[in-house]
Amino acid sequence: MIPMTGPAPDLSGYPATDDDVYEWLLSDHPWARAERRRRAQDRHTEDTTRAAQVRHWVDTTDQHSPGAPGRTLAELLRPSADETHLRAEIRSAEPDDLSVQHDRKAYEQERRAGGEDYHYPAHLIGPDAVRYPPPKPQPAP
Length: 141
Fold this sequence. Notes:
It is elongated and about 60 Å long. The chain has one domain (19-131). It starts with 18 loop residues before the first helix and ends in a 28-residue tail after the last helix. The protein has helices spanning 19-25, 30-64, 69-93, 96-113. The protein is 60% helix and 0% strand. Helix 2 (30-64) runs antiparallel to helix 3 (69-93). The chain is an all-alpha fold and 141 residues long.
């Protein structure tokens, strides 16, 4: 059994595609919160880095290839890179407690759309969530 105190175990490999794991990652368990923050930071870094790389290519193409076929592509990609960067900044400004509430509601709707009478488990919300350790991921089929 995993101890419930101390630093969080490495949960970076936990598959959010596994229903039990995803449900737990949306919980109020301190380790789930820490893992959400880590994943959000990784996504922010990935998105802003990619946007910066595209923007750099666009700017370089504008400077060195006026009239070249790549310039048309650069003109098409500029707004996309800017939008990706802006979305990443907006997403990173949203507090975890708000984004997790949205994600729980979306998860409930997704499960209900699949025909289940699903409600996000109350025992994973609030301070008692600390009593529920991360589930073991299901083996890949």
